[in-house]
Amino acid sequence: MARYFLPKGMRYSSLGERDTFYRLEFDFDQIKKWFKSSGRMGKVIFAAVIGRHTRIFPPKYKDDISTTILFDEYKNFNEISDFLLDFLPESLYYDRNLYEDGEIVGMEIAFDLDPENLICPLHGSLNEKMKRGQGLGFCETALNMVKNSAIKLYDELSKTFSHLGLVYSGRGFHIHIFDNDSFSWSYEKRKDLADTVLGKGFPIDEWVTSGGARLIRLPFSLHGMVSRIVYPLRIDELADFNPIEDPRSKPSFLKD
Ligand SMILES: [Zn+2]
Questions:
Q1: Quick check: 113 pLDDT over 70?
Q2: How far, in Å, is the centroid of ligand 1 from the Cα of 141?
Q3: Superfamily of domain 108-212
Q4: Nearest 5°: phi and psi at 85?
Q5: Alpha helix locations (H) across 159-226?
Q6: Is residue 1 predicted with pLDDT exceeding 70?
Q7: Of 24, 26, 49, 110, which has the fewest Cβ atoms less than 10 A away?
Q8: Residues 6+ apart with CB under 8 A from 76
C-alpha cells in the first residue's frame, strides 16, 4: 500500500490507537466549551470518515471506508462516543450549517489552509504531487509555510471581524469566523470573501469558505492520517507553535 509522505514524527494511527484515543483521551467537555465560545446555538451534526485516505478500517466496515457518516440523530454525547468506538474513524468533522426546525438558517464561515493549496519549494504543486500519487503528502517546510500564511490571514481578517477562532487541523490550520452577523451571510457573499482572500495569495480551499463544503474537522478529535489532535490555539501562540512537537496536539499513544 502506497502511503503519503509526511513530516518526520507524523504517521497514520492504527485502529488500536484510534480506539485508545476515543476511549481515554477524547473529551466532549472541551468540545462543548469550544462550541459555547463560538456563540453558535442549536444541535451540532457530527460526521465521520472511517478510512478514505489511510485505508485503515475495521473489517466489518470495508464497504464504507470512504463514506461520510453523519451523526444527527443522537440523544447525548455518550451515544456519539459509542458510535466512535464502533467506527474508529480516521477523521471526525462537524457541520458548519446552522439549522432551525430542520431548515438551514445560516453557516459558520471558515478558512481551511492546507499544504495542497500552496506550491512547496521542495515537492512542487498539488498537480505535481498527484502525478506521483502523493496528493495529500506534505513536508515540514510546506506546513511552516501554511502556518505563516495563517498568521497573516488572521491579522487580515481581524480588520473586518472581531470574533475569530484558530485551530491547528493536523495538516494545516483553520480560521473560524464567529461574529454573529456573519452566520447569516449568503453563499454569494461568502464566495466573494473567499475570492478576495484567494486573490491575495492565501492558500485556502475556496470550497470551504464559500460553503460548497459544509464539514470542518472537529476540534479535539484525532487526525488519523498524521496522529495529531486537532487543537484550538490563541493567535499569540501560533508563531511559536510547533505542530510536530507540541505536546498539546500529540496523542498519549505517541508519548513514550
Ligand atoms: Zn514539500
A1: yes
A2: 6
A3: DNA primase, PRIM domain (3.90.920.10)
A4: -75, -20
A5: 187-199, 206-210
A6: no
A7: 24
A8: none
C-alpha cell at 158: 481581524
CA 122 to ligand 1 center in whole angstroms: 5
For ligand 1, the distance from its centroid to the CA atom of residue 11, given in whole angstroms, is 16
Task: Compute the distance between CA of residue 106 and CA of residue 182 in angstroms, rounded to an integer.
Answer: 9
Cell of residue 44, nine digits: 451540532
SS3 106: strand
Within 65-205, residue ranges assigned H as helices are: 77-87, 126-131, 140-158, 187-199
| Each residue's pLDDT tens digit, 131-151 | 998 888 899 999 999 999 999
Q: Which tens digits make up the pLDDT trace of 221-244?
A: 999 999 999 999 999 999 999 999
Those residues whose C-beta lies under 8 Å from the C-beta of residue 51, and which sit 6 or more positions away, are 57, 61, 65, 66, 89, 90
Spatial separation of the C-alpha atoms in residues 119 and 125, rounded to whole Å: 4
* Separation CA 247–CA 244 (nearest Å): 9
CA–centroid distance, residue 93 to ligand 1 (Å): 26
Place of cell 481551511: 112
Checking if the pLDDT of 40 tops 60, the result is yes
Q: Which residues contact 255 (CB under 8 A, 6 or more apart)?
A: 247
The contacts of residue 246 (CB under 8 Å, 6+ apart) are 168, 231
Annotated domain spans of the chain: 1-96+214-230, 108-212
